[in-house]
Specification:
Blueprint (H helix, E strand, L loop, with lengths): L1 E4 L5 E2 L8 E2 L27 H11 L5 E4 L6 H8 L3 E4 L4 H10 L5 H14 L16 H4 L2 H17 L5 H14 L8 E2 L7 E2 L8 H22 L8 E3 L14 E6 L9 H11 L1 H4 L3 H7 L27 H9 L4 H24 E11 L2 E3 L2 E3 L1 H12 L4 E10 L11 H4 L5 E9 L9
Parallel strand pairs: 1-13, 4-5, 4-9, 5-8, 9-10
Antiparallel strand pairs: 2-3, 6-7, 10-14, 11-12, 13-14
Helix pairs in contact: 1-2, 3-7, 4-6, 4-8, 6-7, 7-8, 7-9, 12-13, 13-14
Protein name: DNA methyltransferase
GO molecular function: methyltransferase activity
Keywords: Methyltransferase, Transferase
Length: 446
């Protein structure tokens, strides 16, 4: 494997479909200019830069090809697939992420959205609207003022009244509803709720739920119009959900041309902790209540919940995997069994993901992974190197790592504080691991 940095000027990337050199800093994107089309419709922690998804799509596929993101998060890859004329499939274990992804990648005429906003505004003026419903969220009155809860309940009833069941407009309205809660300035009594380490922040005055919703919905109309305007002419392409577990894909062998994804860090952001407030209010929409959502969170890749679930008296530490880089990290964390098990489970899960990506990617296609190393109790975890080691092993030789590219993550783009004295040096380099699916490309049937 060739480890390249982006400072290696004018070195062309091998095996591209397009003859384009990778110039210095080509993957170091600024923090601005990323909210075009529907990318800014809903806040989402650790969101992938849209230009990075576009780079992978345009480098390794042609228009009309099939792109799969097995950890699609807020749908960045799906949107970029549409904008570049590719069919885009998404998989994500989080039900709120699946809702957001499909909303952002489902074009809706802006006129229909504006008409809905006018109708909802009119309905919200009715004084007899029932605002008594409350979600089954522990400590609800602590996290939501009672008048805010009433406003949210009334808004929810109006959305049901003004939108058709299972319609794209209704899904959009729910996503906008969620965006009022999962936000840096949430209508909940929480600061920076978009991230898992949020803190209590009490509203001293009503934050105007209806006004915020209508503003966001009308903004969504402009975003949808921008999505439509930027979609290329030519054969129609679509985005769809293709499952909810990257470890067990319900996708046929060789069905996609590119598998591109950005997995969570080891000991990841706790998405369920950030999303649980919105999930509580939308439990009937996303099909899971708070208790089940928190139980399901134990299965998220990268989670440190229930870290010792597999530990026993006879096996207090994880067994060897015979993957040298994984076993080395686990051994160095032997004085912290919970962290050792978290690392072990993470890479065991990711081995299954890599194997599935190898299976569903056609021969000659690519699997591209964007990942950052981690520090766990001051033990460095070079995740990109582990993936490069695992890819050919777990895929029975079907994945051949071609290159690893480095890109800088600038501190000014960070949104969360970090204590280097406690956790170790902050990672400022992210890696793009490019693997080719071995074999000859087969011609698709018509």
């Amino acid at each position: 494997m060739l480890n390249q940095t982006l400072d290696d000027a004018d070195r062309a990337m091998p095996c591209h479909r397009h003859d384009r050199a990778l110039m210095p800093g080509a993957l170091d994107f600024s923090a601005s200019g990323h909210l075009y089309a529907t990318h800014g419709l809903h806040a989402f922690a650790a969101r992938l830069p849209p230009p990075l998804a576009r780079w992978a799509i345009e480098s390794f596929t042609d228009p009309g090809d099939y792109v799969l993101d097995v950890m699609c998060g807020s749908g960045t890859t799906l949107v970029e697939g549409l904008l570049t004329g590719r069919h885009a499939w998404g998989v994500d274990i989080d039900p709120l992420a699946r809702l957001i992804s499909m909303v952002k990648a489902t074009p809706i005429p802006s006129a229909a959205i504006l008409e809905l906003a006018d109708e909802i505004e009119k309905c919200l003026t009715v004084s007899t609207l029932d605002g008594s419903w409350r979600p089954a969220l522990p400590r609800l009155s602590y996290w939501f003022r009672d008048d805010v809860s009433s406003d949210l309940a009334r808004l929810k009833s109006v959305i049901v009244r003004t939108t058709g069941e299972e319609s794209a407009l209704r899904s959009l309205a729910w996503a906008v509803f969620s965006s009022l809660i999962v936000a840096r300035t949430s209508v909940a009594n929480a600061r920076d709720l978009v991230h898992s380490r949020h803190h209590y922040r009490e509203w001293t005055a009503n934050p105007d739920v209806p006004g915020r919703f209508l503003k966001q919905l009308r903004r969504a109309a402009r975003q949808m119009q921008d999505l439509e305007d930027q979609m290329p002419d030519g054969p129609s392409v679509t985005a769809r959900l293709a499952g909810n577990d990257a470890r067990e894909l319900s996708i046929g062998d060789g069905a996609v041309d590119l598998s591109f994804f950005s997995p969570p860090y080891v000991s990841a952001l706790d998405y369920p902790r950030a999303h649980v407030f919105a999930v509580a209010w939308l439990s009937d929409v996303v099909g899971v209540d708070v208790d089940q959502y928190r139980t399901d969170a134990r299965r998220y890749i990268g989670t440190d919940r229930a870290a010792l679930a597999e530990a026993t008296t006879a096996q207090p530490l994880p067994p060897r995997t015979d993957w040298d880089l994984v076993d080395d990290v686990v051994e160095r964390l032997s004085d912290a069994p919970e962290k050792a098990w978290t690392v072990h489970r993470y890479f065991r899960d990711m081995a299954a993901v890599l194997a599935e990506c190898a299976r569903v990617t056609r021969p000659g296609g690519h699997v591209v992974i964007v990942v950052c190393p981690s520090n766990i109790r001051r033990v460095r975890v070079d995740t990109h190197d582990v993936f490069a080691q695992l890819a050919p092993i777990v895929s029975a030789g079907r994945l051949e790592v071609e290159d690893t590219y480095a890109r800088t993550i600038h501190d000014h783009r960070r949104v969360m504080p970090y204590l280097e004295q406690s956790f170790g040096e902050r990672m400022r380099t992210e890696y793009v691991v490019v693997a080719r699916r071995t074999g000859h490309r087969e011609v698709r049937g018509t």
